[in-house]
């Protein structure tokens, strides 16, 4: 397994999964964590995908973040671009969760204002847990009816998803720990609504240049201050954890 060291706080070498999980623990109650990977020059993609930026350390933490979450929230653009399948954690993560009285797999929640998804996709037909589809009034009743046999359909907002209504619908289902895996449009909406509690950002030791986008899009009235919670390191990759300064 790829060694991951902690540089800040309390430097320590070769952290085990238990230590990493402890470092990533969140307070009880609703919590929105976002996880992204970026190049050193701020690109969110390489050749149109995030995979080219990710390495072993990022993949290890990516899986541990899923292990800790009740629901994994992803924008439809990312689902389409990255070819997401059903939301399943590794066998080890599933066993860890079951031992703690939690469902083996987190819920998959997909945000699509236009409901531009295929209800016959394995995302839905092979889902270990019934997914949630969050859409807007832009989707038609017919489109929504196609998803009802395979997912909980939440209509939140008219043209764009109302983040507060979406998070309330998730919380109503008893799902506290929300992990957003992107993409940049959805992250921008979450930041604009000031609902992001935490950002886990992997900085990969590579320069991409070109015209790749950043990890967040959209407009924001003023910045959002963050505080640094930890810095992990593995073979030139930095794994940063920031919390919203309240
Ligand atoms: N570096 C990383 O860690 C990382 C992580 C994730 C994604 N990415 C990359 O990001 C790119 C995709 O970017 P993206 O901005 O298109 O991703 P995205 O945010 O996942 O998807 C945008 C789409 O999601 C839906 N959506 C998101 N926010 C919405 C809102 N507030 N209201 C209504 N609908 C909303 C819409 O779907 P409909 O069009 O269906 O209405 C929208 O077109 C891909 O190249 C992917 O590889 C990188």
Summarize this structure as a short list of keywords or feature phrases.
alpha/beta; Dihydrofolate Reductase, subunit A; 24% strand; globular; 2 domains; 10-stranded mixed beta sheet; 246 residues
Number of domains: 2
CATH architecture of the largest domain: 3-Layer(aba) Sandwich
Low-confidence stretches: none
Rg is 18 Å
Q: Can you write the helix and strand succession as a string? A: EHEHEHHEHEHEHEHEEE
Average residue-wise pLDDT: 97
With helices defined by DSSP (H or I, 4 residues minimum), what is the helix count? 8
Count the strands? 10
CATH superfamily of the largest domain: Dihydrofolate Reductase, subunit A
What characterizes the major β-sheet?
10 strands, mixed
What is the structural class?
alpha/beta
Q: Under CATH, the topology of the largest domain is which?
A: Dihydrofolate Reductase, subunit A
Which class of the largest domain in CATH terms? Alpha Beta
Helix content: 25-40%
Shape: globular
Overall description:
- Helix 2 (56-68) packs parallel to helix 4 (91-99).
- The protein folds into two domains: 1-12 and 30-70 and 182-246, Dihydrofolate Reductase, subunit A (3-Layer(aba) Sandwich), CATH 3.40.430; 74-175, Dihydrofolate Reductase, subunit A, CATH 3.40.430.10.
- Helices cover 27% and strands 24% of the residues.
- It is globular, with a radius of gyration of 18 Å.
- The protein is built from eight helices and ten strands.
- The chain is of the alpha/beta class and 246 residues long.
- It starts with a strand and ends with a strand.
- Strands 1-9-10-8-2-7-3-4-5-6 form a ten-stranded mixed sheet, with helices on both faces.
- Bound molecules: NADP nicotinamide-adenine-dinucleotide phosphate.
- NADP nicotinamide-adenine-dinucleotide phosphate is lined by residues 36-38, 44-45, 48-50, 53, 75-78, 81-82, 111-114, 116, 136, 160-161, 181-186, 189, 215, 217.
